Amino acid sequence: MTAELVRGQNHTLPQTRLEIRVSAGSPVVAGATLGDERGTVHGAEWIAHPGSPQLPGLEVSRQAAADHRLAVDLEALPGAVHRVTVLLALPLGAGRPVTFGSVAAPFVAVTGLDGTEIATFTLTGLDAESAVTALELYRRQGVWKVRAVGQGYAAGLAGMLADQGVARATELAASIQEAVASGLARSVAPAPPRTPEGRRVRHPARPAPSAGGGQPRVPPAGGDRHPAPSPGSEPLGEPSPVPAADSTAGGPIDYAHPRRRTSAPPPPPAAPPAAPGQPARPVAGDAGGWSMDERLYNQIWGMFEDLARAVAAYRSAADFAESRMDQELDRTLSDPRSRIGGAGDRAREEARAKRDELTARAREALDRDLAQLAAESAVVEPALPAAYAGWDNPVWHGYRVPMENPMALRIGDLRLPECADLRIPLLVRLPLERGIWIDSGRTASEAAASTDGDQLRRLAMETAVAMAVRLLAVHPAGEFSVHVIDPAASAVGALAPLTGSGVLAGPPATGAGGVASVLAHLTRRVDLVQMAIRAGAADSLPPDLDMGEQLLIVNDFPHGFDDRAVTQLRYLADEGPAVGVHLLMVADREDARAYGPVLDPLWRSLLRITPVADDHLADPWVGHAWTYEPLRAPQGSRVLEQVLALVAAARRTGYR
Fold first, then answer.
1. Phi, psi of 615 (to 5 degrees)
2. Could you tell me if 624 and 446 are in contact, meaning their C-beta atoms sit under 8 angstroms apart?
3. Coil/strand/helix, residue 558
4. Which of 4, 400, 536, 565 has the most Cβ atoms closer than 10 angstroms to its Cβ?
5. Are 169 and 142 in contact (CB under 8 A)?
């Protein structure tokens, strides 16, 4: 049973391997400090933060976000550690909230690895604070407990670190904010609000309505939502801003582009007039953004949020109706007089009738919302660009190799059981900020458990190939390369579209030698680019180094991998995305149990998807379990081969 804590309350932890999930109304920085018996933090090496996200037994998020998942293994902590304190702070930057009093109250949950909640805490009552100690895990007499703290600091992150005895707290806080700023620079925000005339209204993060007073849940790393640029941000490809006044004179500087009439993005297209009393007719691109792709991206995220909240309202109402019926029956049956004659039967019928009426009214409201979302989906889906479109979309019949990189990629569809026919595209931002793991295990879901193991592995590899084709197709020729490691050459059939078209960077690597060669090549690339960036010497990179985005597909992991290869894979998963090297693994998690906890950080760093339908993803608002479905080419279609042929031709003719 979940313990809903209030400030100062504690609760015993029944297990030592935990996740701490944070949900906030706007991006926050999440970190943690390690303390001794007196709670003293013995230096920066005892602090996990976005600039240094991993410590023994502890891993935190690498950038500011509205939702976080922190991993804790209490048994793996150093012996001198008796306290783990979870910290939240607002990131610095123009236009961002400066106090927790101006955002929704953060919600923190301590869960087991299976997602079962152990304790929750909502940080209410914050005002002028810009940093807060959310909760602490502490050890007393050999037993670990969690305590809700909720101590805020108006002096911000520096004041909070200084209060814990950290030396040079101001400099450390500045370095953390600098690391956060570099991460936020690569993120984009959700869609802006709709107007009262019918455009989408973005809901503030708040507890979902439920009879039990439940709070919003944080999604797995896969259900992640990305924040969008502010309306006044400058789009890429524009000339340098022109100052309106001499900066040396201390006057204001106008950074608006001289040819732009407003610093805000152009408004979305107006909806066609609707009949009196009818809802506004949907329009593709009905969201804010500088380009049609950005507006569609924001609109899809808005549809996702609207569906999540509509279903949450229905489930809450249905739960309330059921609970009310039970209470009425309990009151009636507790009176002995109701057991005489037909009074008890009449009370049951009346209670059930009230429940059915409330549930039916809630379903009517849900059906209205679903009808509007279905109409919007019917308009949006045909308007999607190739990067956002399913393989059955006609846009692929007119496909041409693009000249610019896309802002996002569709990797599947999401649906809820109340509306199985309504599917919301699952979009991830590009370049990929984390790797992807396609789970080929039979324990992943009911559909996986009922599928033959060999067929499941084949489907998983076909899903990986389709994703690689999509990534190659949406990037300009020569700006995206794919490498394959197939140690036992067991995926020859599934890899045929890639090998036959000649778009791979090299033949699939097999055997121990092939595995070592590919991993050494990509590790060297990561090392060289990182050193060049740190030294500010990008011109000194070797001329033969491919600076395009790189994708490594690993089949049937961990078979064929020794300890060195596993370490290199973990390195690529952690450090590769920042310098353009991305990981796509096809693996059965159960097969890797022999490696023990050494692979846990690797799995946590990857977004898990499945080759068959599976309800393992959750949204950031109310925590629904969404069923994920991979993208499949229509039966008998040769769309993958046709797209790859155009990609290969473009590489031969337009890229040397």
1. -100, 60
2. no
3. coil
4. 565
5. no
Q: What residues have CB less than 8 Å from 583, skipping those under 6 apart?
A: 435, 436, 551, 552, 554, 569, 572, 573, 576, 606
Q: Name 84's Cβ contacts closer than 8 Å, sequence gap at least 6.
A: 32, 33, 34, 35, 58, 72, 74, 77, 136, 137, 138
Burial of 406 (0-12, 13-18, 19+ CB in 10 A): buried
Distance CA 135, CA 18 (A): 14
| Residue 261: Cβ-neighbour burial (10 angstroms; 0-12, 13-18, 19+) | exposed
- Judged by phi (left if over 0) then psi (alpha if -120 to 50, else beta), residue 504 lies in beta
Task: Quickly tell me which residue has 């002995």 as its tokens.
Answer: 336
Neighbours of 453 (CB within 10 A): 12
Q: Quickly list DSSP for 345-372.
A: HHHHHHHHHHHHHHHHHHHHHHHHHHHH
Coil/strand/helix, residue 89: strand
Omega of the bond leading into 192 within 30 degrees of 0 (cis): no
Tell me which residue of 219, 209, 200 sits closest to 67, measured CA to CA: 219
Q: Which residue has the tokens 């809450």?
A: 316
What stretch of H or E contains 160?
helix 156-163
Summarised one tens digit per residue, pLDDT across range 172-219 is: 888 888 877 755 543 333 444 444 333 444 333 333 333 233 333 323
Q: How many CB atoms lie within 10 A of CB 308?
A: 24
Please choose, from the candidates 598, 611, 601, 527, the residue with its C-alpha nearest in 3D space to the C-alpha of residue 561: 598
Question: What single letter denotes the amino acid at residue 181?
Answer: A
Average pLDDT, the chain: 81
Average pLDDT over residues 108-116: 86
Helix/strand/coil for 638: coil
| Radius of gyration of the CA atoms of the chain, in A | 27
Q: 80 and 38 in contact (C-beta within 8 Å)? A: no
The residue assigned the tokens 């990008």 is 538
What's the one-letter identity of residue 40?
T
The three-state DSSP-derived secondary structure of 470-519 is HHHHHCCCCCEEEEEECCCCCCCCCCHHHHHHCCCCCCCECHHHHHHHHH
The whole model's pTM is what? 0.62
Q: How confident is residue 347, by pLDDT bands cut at 50, 70 and 90? A: confident
Tell me: the pLDDT tens digits for 545-604?
A: 888 899 999 998 888 888 899 899 999 998 999 999 999 999 988 877 777 677 877 887
Under 8 Å between Cβ of 131 and 152: yes
pLDDT at 264 over 70: no
